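Quick one:
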Amino acid sequence: MKKLKTFSLALALIACSVLFIACGNNESGMIDQETLTVNAVAGKKFGDAAFQLATTGGSGEGEVTFALVSGPATVTPGGLVTVTGAGSIVVKATKAADSKYRSAVSVNLTIIVGKAEQAMLEIIDVLGRKVGDAFQLATTGGSGTGVVTYEKISGTANVSNAGFVSSITSAGDIVVKATKAADNNFNQTASNELTITVGKANQAAFSIENPGAKTMLSQDFELVAVGGSSGEAVTFTRVSGTAATVSSAGFVSIVEAGSIAVTATMAGNSNYYEITSAELTITITKVNQTALVITNPGDKTVVDPAFQLVTTGGSGTGAVTYERVSGGATATVSLTGLVTITETENMISGGTVYVKATKAGDDIYNEATHTLGISIADFEIEEVDYNPANNIRLIRTRFQMERFRTLVNVQSASRSWNAKLMNDIDLQGSAGNPWIPMDVYGHATSGGVFDGNGYKISGLYMDGDDVSDASSGNAFIRSLYGSVKNLTIVGDITADYKGAGFVIYNRGSIRYCIFEGTVSSAGDAAGISVFNPSMGSVWCCINRGNISADNRAGGIAVEFAASTFGQEMFFCINLGSVTAGLEAGAVAVAADSAGDTTITGGAVQNCYYLDTTCAIGIYDLGAGQSHPQGIKQPTSKTITDFQNGSVTTEINGLTFAKTGKNFFIQGADNLPTLDWVITLA
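Output:
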């Protein structure tokens, strides 16, 4: 631009010269003016107010004008200079010609314009900052286009050149300063130092890790806290619950099933406040037991005896109980699992009975249950099941036994019926349900055989005050004219007059029978039969019961009546205690009702007794002249003799010699018992 102006001026001068020559030179005869000078200007800087140029020198009355030669400014013809930037401004002045003086041009004047000072630079105040914050600094003031940079004077933080503050690691003061750089027009400037106060911070999120499901079999465990910021010690606190203890270090010891609530606290320090976690609920549950299973007893019929349920499996110390839950079969289930098939008068209903076993929970295990359906087949019966092929009444149930007894007592024709047990039968006797004896069973000519078939009648309960005609005696049968065989009776019998396990008056035969239990009488008492007159016989019978009487007591019998024939007691064993107020014999007493204290008409041979049961085998021993086989005192043996099998061997030798059969074996308790298989063969 400067070159262009110079070139234009040169062209103008040439043109004027040509014109002057052509016109005849208008300034000829004029004189030059004195030297024209633009007065010097100093001390100017960017931002100053406009100023006026002035000249000295020159001559005449020609007008002075000014012009900008170069530089950051504007110059009016009148010489008013407005600075537009720092740097060098070149100006000149021209004094026009007049009638006397030629025009004059000054020498160029260079005016130096310095840079200005910036406006005050300030960092904007920063409040409410805490450890861990990050933020951007900002300034106000300053001038020009220079870049603002920041620096940290002191404190624990990072401050970038751009003014971003980060990594504040501790509470306290951070001192910063800002600088705005110079540009073409302004000098560099710096702010005053700013102090930023940093306070304590809340810690980062803090919690207890969930330890997962816990049971009563879980091992003790340690809690772990995560998060927080201070890095200080963590303490744990159980705030509720008793299912476990919690140490301050977080060790948890299980005590019982239930729940606890726990918090953790991380301590504060100079930079962070203390923090406590939310409550964590830990639940300790009991463990499920291993599968509890009722052992299936197999299919049953309505005439089967009571049976005991058992379970397998389960865990812990809880007791097992049973209950009937549903089903159509008429059966009861005791708390201990005894299933009894119950009866109606003429029908026992079969079907399925559903039984539930429950093994109670304990401190460690939950309750466990199992339900089992037990099939009970129907069995229709008449009042007493009758087998016409051999004229035998088959007795399978308590009801049938009671019905048979009733028929025998009310129908004389029934007394000669043959009967056979087909099951063990529990009479379920009690003070409210005593056994009423069969008054008379069997007939001297037409028979009547009650065959126990190797089974057992239990629950025979009698009390002298609870049965009719107590003066006649209490026993399974009062008067026997037929026979009873192959039967075990278990009972508790009390009599006001006479009492026996099987029979009061035996005019028939009792063979291969066992009594267990007690007989107690205010009069006479015996394990098998009290009186055995006119042909009454007792063979191969065992008394295991305890026999006691105020008057007379015998382990097997009391009397064999005098002056009659046919009474026999062979191969009998007494193992139960025998005590009496007057006379007692381990096997028999022998005095008759007339007071004769000798036996004169019967035979007692090959009998044994345990030496501790009574002082003597037969209390009064007669000659027995009326019977060809006579009477022999029973043999006393020790418990060792009975348990080592020597008595069993000895008595079997005697039975074999007489009958060709062995009737005795060693029982499970190592005492002699009857061999029902051989007996029934």
